[in-house]
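Question thread 4412

I'm putting together a teaching handout and wanted feedback from people who do this every day. The idea is simple: show students a protein as raw sequence, then show them the structure tokens that encode its fold, then repeat with a second protein so they can compare. Below is the first pair exactly as I plan to print it.
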Amino acid sequence: MAEIGMVIMVEKDKRADIESVAKSLEAKGLHVQETIPRFRTIVGTSDSGLIGAFKSVAGVEAVRPQTTFQLPEMDEKVPQ
């Protein structure tokens, strides 16, 4: 499967343990890019097939794949 960006929310009572949650996620296959304790968020990349494994990690509240979008090229005939 394809490597995609992931945004993982840590449970409120595990905010102080965000680094240990990140290490547990790394052990399951997440390539952690950033931890943001203030927002209880871990950002990283992984194979899209690992979402279920990340949800099972203690302290994880939610796992959300990052989505991207592309605006169409500028065209004088199409209002933007």
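The second pair follows. I'd like the answer to focus on this one:
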Amino acid sequence: MAAPDAFLLASVFGILGNIVAFMVYLAPLPTFYRIFKKKSTEGFLSIPYSVALFSAMLMLYYAFLKTNAFMLITINSIGCIIETSYLVMYMIYAPPKTRIYTAKLLVLFNVGVYGVIILSTYLIPNHFLRIKVVGWISVVFSVCVFAAPLSIMRLVIRTRSVEFMSFPLSFCLTLCAVMWFFYGLLVRDLFIAAPNILGFAFGLAQMIMYLMFKNSKKSMLPEFSLNQIPNVVAVNDIVASDSQLKTEDTKKSSEAEENQSTESMTNDSRAEDAAAAEPNESIV
């Protein structure tokens, strides 16, 4: 393929990737509209937005090091702005303890870890080696992010319900991975193309799983609804809560059985006393 054709195709895939990624960044808007409307975070977690911000910051740093990566700079700059806006709104309406926890998370993770990465890689004298190191760090982090939906997939298999899975979001994430894979392939950037192979695989698996279980009987876990699940991390809380509820139900049933057995033993002893008393009465 001629160089101009490859550049043109890379630009097309880069623009499409920017559009789809922008839609993915806007996916939590209903959640934050609800937070704004109710003036409360209602137990929503800030970790996914902190992770998304860190990912955008890391890719932005990589793009600046690489140079001539306008497509990466554009979408990740937008991502940083959007995720920061989400976190600011979260901090405004979060309870004091949650606000403090979120502030600590941002300072330690988004400032501390990110700062360590920048400082440690800045000390590398060779520019191309610095790009490779930051690229591999980005790959490792991207793989961790793409592997996050495994929790939702496990929950879908466990409950036989797709209540916790959004098909449009899974589709957008898969499409986004495809666009950035071909962009990375055309610009010959392994650090962009490689992690999106895994992103495509997980996205495709989610969509297949959705089609498999979409007609299954819905089995929502107690006291939770889809609107209360903004991210993957919340699913773990739901599973834990479900286990706790089952444990409580087991304890209650055990207590009921013990009470029933105690009552039956009491009735049996009363019957035995009555039977023992009958011969004495006849003798008298």
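Top answer:
Good format. For the second protein you could add a caption like this: The radius of gyration is 28 Å. The longest helix spans residues 232-283.
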